[in-house]
Design brief:
Blueprint (H helix, E strand, L loop, with lengths): L7 H28 L6 H22 L5 H9 L1 H33 L6 H18 L1 H26 L17 H6 L1 H8 L17 H27 L9 H6 L12 H30 L9 H14 L4 H8 L2 H49 L2
Helix pairs in contact: 1-6, 1-8, 1-9, 1-11, 2-8, 2-9, 2-14, 3-4, 3-14, 4-5, 4-11, 4-12, 4-14, 5-11, 5-12, 6-11, 8-14, 11-12
Family: Belongs to the amino acid-polyamine-organocation (APC) superfamily. Spore germination protein (SGP) (TC 2.A.3.9) family.
Main location: membrane
Protein name: Spore germination protein
């Protein structure tokens, strides 16, 4: 495929950029609806799915070291079922990329570029991502090394500037109704953590494959800490009305005012969103075109890039009628079908692969014992 190589650290940054940009803006409101003042704990419960997903894809990579999920699905489940699993993965992530593009466009038009057509905002982002994806995996890895540290620094600055407006009493009473509300609130972010399955498309191309598991787990831990800080910040600033805002972090950022001079720092949120959304869309985009090329058994994925981008643009338009419908879907059904595709299906493949390997080992061992017995019998029967 001519993908090039990236390091495990770059893979970690790409996974971090795949989950956090949309999660920072959308997860607090969806979590607060169920967890209320215990929303700060929900990302920790949700991270279990992230660690499980990384474990599954790393184990599958260990069994099939030079193949991606699309390729070893056929080896494990057979040609027909393996192709169907690959097709389902492609379609789900086409839809996922369309949702991210639509969420990006709705946020930019709804808060900053009020008179700019939504289609223009989404189309320009798709084109830029297409250029990056066509440039190869190495370019995505270097872009992650540039953008992710910058966005993290700006995120930390936002949190520090909001510190004077925080009230720790907003999280009281803790565990008023036990642990169940926080666990229920973790269902939506579990869908975001399941997206770590995209590591399956980076592991075969790592320069230091021995460190893939470690940096995959570090990525999940960093995502969990980021979402924990995000939820705590939104809760401490907005209190029990977090669930009333579609973008709680954006609303909280408007509280920032330093000496009447530093205000309107929500522009920084836009900068974080644009950079993060670019990387997230690019990673989804790359996974889709690489998956489609491997599913079609093509030698090169680059001829598909712009055609797939054109299709993603229309999927983003068709994905929802407005931002309210988009928010309802992301906060309800989206998590379940993403977890099914990105965590449950790979887990099933791993169990099947382990069973097949064990069956082959047993058959080989039985044949070896039989040959040894035959040879011993022949020697014993000689005069």
């Amino acid at each position: 495929m001519g993908n090039g190589k990236i390091t495990s650290v770059q893979m970690m940054l790409l996974l971090y950029a795949t989950v956090t940009p949309t999660a920072i803006l959308l997860v607090p409101q969806a979590t607060a609806q169920h967890a209320k003042q215990d929303m700060w704990l929900s990302p920790l419960w949700a991270s279990v799915i992230g660690f499980l997903t990384i474990y599954v894809v790393v184990e599958l990579h260990r069994l099939y070291p030079n193949k991606t999920l699309i390729e070893y699905s056929v080896d494990i489940a057979g040609t027909f079922f393996g192709k169907m699993i690959g097709l389902m993965f492609i379609l789900v992530h086409i839809h996922g990329a369309g949702l991210v593009i639509r969420a990006y466009g709705e946020f930019i038009v709804g808060h900053f570029l009020f008179h700019t057509p939504l289609s223009f905002v989404m189309g320009t982002m798709v084109f830029v991502c297409a250029v990056a994806v066509r440039s190869g995996m190495e370019v995505l890895g270097w872009l992650a090394k540039i953008f992710v540290p910058l966005t993290v620094v700006w995120f930390v600055i936002i949190v520090l500037l909001l510190f004077p407006d925080m009230d720790g009493k907003n999280m009281l009473p803790v565990f008023e109704k036990g642990l169940w509300p926080s666990i229920k609130g973790s269902i939506v972010p579990q869908g975001w953590f399941s997206q770590c399955v995209l590591a399956a498309f980076f592991l075969p191309y790592l320069l230091d494959q021995r460190n893939g598991r470690k940096w995959g787990h570090i990525a999940v831990a960093c995502i969990a800490v980021t979402l924990l800080i995000t939820n705590v910040t939104a809760l401490f600033v907005l209190g029990n009305v977090v669930e009333d805002f579609i973008y709680p972090v954006m609303t909280a950022a408007r509280y920032i005012s330093v000496a009447g001079f530093l205000e309107h720092v929500e522009v920084i949120i836009m900068a974080i969103w644009v950079a993060g959304a670019f990387l997230k869309i690019a990673v989804f985009y790359y996974a889709v075109v690489l998956s489609l090329a491997q599913w079609l058994r093509m030698d090169e994925y680059k001829p598909l890039v712009f055609a797939v981008g054109f299709f993603l643009f229309f999927v983003s338009i068709w994905s929802a009628r407005d931002v309210m419908e988009l928010g309802r879907f992301v906060g309800t059904a989206n998590a379940f079908y993403i977890m099914f595709t990105d965590t449950a299906i790979p887990l099933l493949l791993l169990l099947m692969a382990k069973w097949r390997k064990r069956s082959v080992f047993r058959v080989t061992a039985a044949q070896g014992k039989k040959e040894h017995h035959d040879q011993t019998g022949e020697k014993g029967g000689q005069p």
